[in-house]
Amino acid sequence: MGLGRVETSTFMSDFLEKCGGYAVLDGGFATELERHGADLNDPLWSAKCLISSPHLVRRVHLDYLDAGANIIITASYQATIQGFEAKGLSREEGEVLLRRSVEIAREAREIYYDRCTKDSWDFVEAGNISRRPILIAASVGSYGAYLADGSEYSGKYGDSVTLETLKDFHRSRVQILASAGADLIAFETTPNKLEAQAYAELLEEEGINIPAWFTFTSNDGINAASGDSILECASIADSCKQVVAVGINCTPPRYIHSLISHIRKVSSKPIVIYPNSGETYDAVNKKWVKSSGVNDEDFVSYLDKWREAGASLFGGCCRTTPNTIRAISRALFDKSNTDT
């Protein structure tokens, strides 16, 4: 474990203190795998690489650690027992791959620590190299991610998908990831309050003993992607004792400030944000439309406003890169050093 066992109630505040007040997440994962040559035109998306090219998964983790990330997120976003079985794998093989997603991230952390030098992002205290705190977050994508039809950006699952449907769908995966050695579970790209409620009840029912965060998507800066109030969504997360941070991911940067302000109205828990590049995803053709994105400099220019609004964990989602994360690290900690 990155920090060892701590009380859930103080887990994230303790971690943030060790990081210097703010923490840096990694950035886009699948888009980085593609940049390294992976073909992800597959219902498993980035999870395909757990089968075909785990070395690329490890490489991307290391790229983000080299860029200054304090938290790396596993390649399990679209990894589900149901998805693996649809590809012809057995349930047992699917379970092994879920655990492997955590193992690869842990291996990357150890490789990074082993090769750290005084010239790295780590710092020196009293002549000794102090290891930068690094956590492994096990990714749990929404039901819409499994459907591979872009519905995680709409949250429109239909009347047949009930609270019990969602709990049953996620149950095995959450159990496996929670026992695989991750430091926390990242419930990501949550598009509606029904799925947030399913996560909260599942954590309670299964007695999951590691912390979690819930992050939501938004298409307008006011509501979750489904149209559910972000206030109601964040309230569900806030009421769950295992949740140590609440926030937003895979949402254009221009919407983040207002969403932080809304979340802060109903939660005092740390706020985690990792927007996408601002580009638009074409779910029909399964590709990103490049015309509307922001560059790294513009992305980082939002940081001060996000900090002032109350966020304390920062990273990137789809189409952001290690360069984005490096720029965030430098901006946060150069600014922090100046402030002190």
From TrEMBL:
Gene3D superfamilies: Homocysteine-binding-like domain
Gene Ontology biological process: methionine biosynthetic process; methylation; S-methylmethionine cycle
PROSITE patterns linked: HCY (PS50970)
NCBIfam families: PRK09485.1 (NF007020)
Residue sites binding Zn(2+) per the record: 250, 317-318
Keyword Zinc belongs to the record: yes
Record-level Gene Ontology MF annotations: S-adenosylmethionine-homocysteine S-methyltransferase activity; zinc ion binding
Cofactor section: Zn(2+)
Name listed for the protein in its UniProt record: Homocysteine S-methyltransferase 3
Signal peptide positions on this chain: none
Domain Hcy-binding: 11-332
Source species: Ziziphus jujuba
Alphabetic keyword roster: Metal-binding, Methyltransferase, Transferase, Zinc
Entry-linked InterPro entries: BHMT-like, HCY_dom, HCY_dom_sf, Hcy_S-methyltransferase
Keyword Methyltransferase among record annotations: yes
